[in-house]
Write a structure and sequence with these properties.
The protein has 1 helix and 12 strands; from the N terminus they run αββββββββββββ. It is mainly beta and 174 residues long. The model is unreliable at 1-43 (pLDDT under 50).
């Protein structure tokens, strides 16, 4: 397995939130976009702007894209159907984002990048049990409002998931 590229995935879990209720999942502070793309072929791969690095990309079991792009001075988190404009885009200065990195101890390896948006934080994550092959990798986004967990949207298709969260240079999450 390449240190910077992982194939991952499991099912969508949305506790107490309707799967298609993006406003409930992403909070009132999210910028919702409704303009549809004119693309005629499915766009299921990463769509970070030219020159940006794909830190994370996957499709959920419901076919929505979770994506995190590193544009140098800014990070951009987006969520939505891959054949349309994202339903939501959050762009933050690099100094406002943070990360939790595996410290090399323990059997469970995980990394995450936290993207703040007002009272809501999107924690894009990847993790795996290094000892047991019986436990699949987990990846997706946790949504927190005022520090309280509100929802988790997990990746659904391991053939479409990419994680380059390991070693990303951001301040540590407090």
């Amino acid at each position: 397995m390449n240190k910077a590229l992982f194939l991952i995935g499991i099912l969508v879990i949305l506790p107490a939130v309707a799967a298609d209720d993006t406003a409930a999942i992403h909070g009132a502070n999210a910028r919702l976009l409704t303009k549809t793309s004119t693309a005629t072929t499915p766009v299921t791969g990463p769509t970070c702007p030219p020159g940006a690095v794909t830190l994370f990309h996957c499709l959920t079991a419901k076919g929505k894209r979770i994506q995190l792009c590193d544009e140098g001075k800014t990070l951009e988190y987006s969520f939505g159907h891959p054949e349309k404009q994202p339903e939501m885009v959050v762009r933050v200065p690099r100094a406002k984002a943070s990360t939790t990195q595996w410290q090399g101890v323990g059997r469970y390896k995980s990394e995450s990048v936290e993207i703040p948006n007002g009272k809501t934080t999107y924690s894009v994550f990847w993790g795996a049990d290094l000892v047991s092959e019986d436990h699949p990798a987990e990846a997706g986004v946790n949504v927190l409002v005022n520090g309280e967990h509100k929802a988790t949207v997990n990746c659904g298709d391991p053939d479409q998931a990419i994680s380059n969260l390991e070693g990303v240079e951001l301040k540590p999450t407090e």
